[in-house]
Amino acid sequence: MTPISRRLALAQLALAALLAACSPQADQQPAALPEPFRGVNLTGSPKYGKDFRLPDADGKERSLADFKGKAVLLYFGFVQCPDICPTSLLRAAEVKKMLGKDGERLQVIFVTVDPERDTPEVLRAYMNAFDPSFIALRGSSEQLAKVAEDFKVYYRKVPTGSSYTMDHTAHSYVFDPQGRLRLALRHEQTPQDYAHDISLLLKAPH
């Protein structure tokens, strides 16, 4: 079993546990929501980035304009992440399925915070392990720092013996089909929460 396969298997167990723990019982009613979105509503916030420009694994520069008409789920992570990143990507794949036909209008984008080790070949294999439609972006250290600053994303190299790991922000950003930043979704939220909010954005009038 490859390292990616092992991390994927562990993440599948973690996601299954999250789904089981958050499944409502037959005699329970869902709690009333204070607002339509279950994530953090960032609509109109001037504090966060409105766009990004980074190369994908094939070296092509990508920005929000490439995904007009789709909701974009933007996540920052790294391939050697032991659990949080693979769990997040597995959840994204599950959300895409939960959306049914609307899942075709969801673009998942993974921005590596570890460009030193996450080569284009590694990133392509990692995305394919979750969903071939997922796109990985890999910029230079300077490009990454700029995008991370724009989106208030924290990341830091942490030494571990002869190697290192990365400490980083674990939430996801969601843009609506018109390219407007709308939501921050927490890692602790369920696939149902993600699908609920993204579905609202996909069905909302322009």
TrEMBL record:
InterPro entries: SCO1/SenC, Thioredoxin-like_sf, Thioredoxin_domain
Top-level division of the source organism's lineage: Bacteria
Signal peptide (residue range): 1-26
Thioredoxin domain residues: 43-203
The keyword Metal-binding is annotated on this UniProt entry: yes
Disulfide bonds: 81-85
Keywords, ordered alphabetically: Copper, Disulfide bond, Metal-binding, Signal
Family in the record: Belongs to the SCO1/2 family.
Name of this protein: SCO family protein
Organism: Ottowia cancrivicina
Taxonomic lineage: Bacteria, Pseudomonadati, Pseudomonadota, Betaproteobacteria, Burkholderiales
